[in-house]
Amino acid sequence: MTYKMIYPYQSALNKEMNQVLVNSISAMEKGKPESLLGNFVADACLNIAIKNYKPESGNGIDFCMLNNGGLRSSLPSGAVTRKNVFELMPFENELVVLTIPGNSVSKILKYISDAGGVPVSNLRMKISGNSFTDVFISGQPFNSSMTYKLVTSDYLANGGDAMQVLSENIHLERLNIKVRDAIIDYMISINSISDTLKPVLDGRISK
User: Fold this and answer.
1) Domains in the chain, please, with CATH?
2) Cis amide leading into 90 (omega within 30)
3) DSSP assignment, residue 1?
4) Which tens digits make up the pLDDT trace of 156-185?
């Protein structure tokens, strides 16, 4: 195959990858106990999951949890392109919704505290050593006798990153949305209202 034959496809791909999805007021990098990048990605996944999740029961998603290891690069300040998102999330991981009993959520919280913090959304907690306190999910105090719905990646749901506790879920539902596509769609939605991405640290996980 000659360069002349490949060029039209390569040119189209480059154009797509260089598409500006949104403009950000600051660069985003991952970190602990929370980070601009982790907060943004978790918020993006939760936002898109909620928009696409239509359970018959009417019980919606309570919170989102991801892992720092899945974030493979930072995002720049200024123009953020589709290529930037592919570099951030090069995997084909998809979003799933897990229905999880409260006692298993307690184990998830312990995992988060042991890790020193991971990307979360709609969850607030304090870490003291390897223990956790002051946990709020969807703005309400955590109750271990309740059942919660968690959106996460299928990688973690399958026990990746030592998250075997997620196998204790009562029910798994697939959204058929790649994590990468959720991030892209969220950026496009922000840009569609002529807004600028304003990532924040809000103390959702503190020490």
Assistant:
1) 19-206 (3.90.780.10)
2) no
3) -
4) 999 999 999 999 999 999 999 999 999 999
Q: Per DSSP, what are the bridge partners of residue 22?
A: 80
3-state secondary structure 42-98: HHHHHHHHHHHCCCCCCCCCCEEECCHHHCCCCECCEEEEHHHHHHHCCCCCEEEEE
CA–CA gap between residue 75 and residue 83 (Å, rounded): 10
Residue 195: the pLDDT is: 80
Which of 97, 85, 108, 96 has its CA nearest to residue 161? 108
Paired tokens of 79: 């123009």
Q: What is the dihedral of CA 142, 146, 149, 153, to 10 degrees?
A: 70
Who's near 197: CB < 8 A, 6+ residues apart? 22, 23, 24, 25, 40, 80, 187, 190
Q: Residue 3 CB: number of other CB atoms within 10 A?
A: 7
- Nearest CA to 94 out of 62, 66, 123 is that of 66
Q: What is the pTM of this model?
A: 0.91
- What's the CA gap between 115 and 185, in Å, rounded? 29
CA distance linking residue 46 with residue 26, whole number of Å:
21
Report d(CA 67, CA 155) in Å as an integer.
Answer: 10
